[in-house]
Q: What sequence folds into this?
């Protein structure tokens, strides 16, 4: 079972009823999954309001990953388990956060890698390019 297959076992078609999310996690390659899961564990720990993220893999929507399912995945090694255990010298992954420049738009896109030549657009405002949040 690949890491992507493992991830798909906990993805749902809709977020939990309590989740009001505009957060999208975009994965461009299967090699980004481990780094993304590590960063997602940190993201969920830092933002307790975020109950789910919408997942896209290679520009295709996969569904939603709920916080509850992330921590309670019924796989051999739970998603996020030991993600905080860093080996000496290994990087502490974090997301590049991209947000819509339109005031009041709460769209947030999370990426592990970002190509300034291929800037994503806001799904709610397709004429607007998402900007890096610092």
A:
């Amino acid at each position: 079972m690949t890491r992507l297959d493992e991830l798909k076992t906990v993805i749902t078609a809709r977020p939990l009823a309590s989740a009001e999310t505009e957060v999208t996690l975009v994965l461009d390659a299967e090699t980004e999954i481990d780094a993304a899961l590590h960063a997602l564990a940190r993201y969920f720990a830092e933002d307790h309001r975020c109950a789910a993220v919408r997942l896209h893999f290679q520009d295709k929507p996969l569904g939603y990953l709920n916080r509850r399912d992330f921590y309670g995945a019924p796989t051999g090694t739970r998603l996020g388990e030991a993600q905080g255990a860093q080996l000496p010298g290994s990087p502490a992954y974090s997301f590049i956060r991209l947000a819509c420049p339109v005031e009041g738009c709460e769209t947030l896109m999370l990426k592990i890698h970002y190509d300034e030549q291929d800037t994503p657009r806001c799904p709610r405002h397709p004429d607007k390019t998402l900007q890096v949040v610092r």
Q: What stands out?
A: The radius of gyration is 15 Å. The longest strand covers residues 60-66.
